[in-house]
Amino acid sequence: MSNDERKELLLKTGEKHPSLLMNLIDKGSPQGGFHPGPSGEQPNWCSCLKCRDMPTQTERDFRLLVLDELVLHVAQMYRQDVLALPNDADYNKGKRHAAYRQFILWQHGRLGIGVRMVIPSCCVWTIRDKFPDQYGQYVGFIPSRLG
Angle 8-9-15 (CA atoms, 0-180°, nearest 5)? Predict the structure, then answer.
């Protein structure tokens, strides 16, 4: 099976059974007794040099959960199908915003309406490097109007 055929199979599987993909992602190592010091090795995606390794694969895998196009595609399908929200016409903008939402969901869980969290600069720039705006124009963090 070619890589393109595998990707297509994964996309179709993700469309019909997104929980199956999440179960595969969630197979992490057991927790407990893990506290790396601030001078340890940083994850390869970090540019601030303050990020630390985490005990489970799910916590460690920024590239898979936040930057992987298949995961972002599943998140965008969920947003479109379940929440009835349209996808962005600009491919990179859509993926970038999906990646921001994935990061917040991964780090903070589901937030209520109007609740917003700042994403660390190193993560924002990693996402922007992967899905850049063609003109280099970004909105930045907008605080909630509700509080």
Answer: 90
Beta carbons of 58 and 64 less than 8 angstroms apart: no
Distance CA 105, CA 70 (A): 16
pLDDT tens, position by position, 120-138: 888 888 899 999 999 888 9
The CA distance from 47 to 129, in Å, is 12
Q: How far apart are CA 106 and CA 143, in angstroms?
A: 20
At 102, list the tokens.
Answer: 């994935």
**Closest C-alpha among 142, 124, 123 to residue 133:** 124
**pLDDT tens digits, 59-78:** 668 888 888 999 999 888 88
Region at 33 (left for phi over 0; alpha for psi -120 to 50; beta for the rest): left
Give CA–CA dist 75/118, Å, rounded: 20
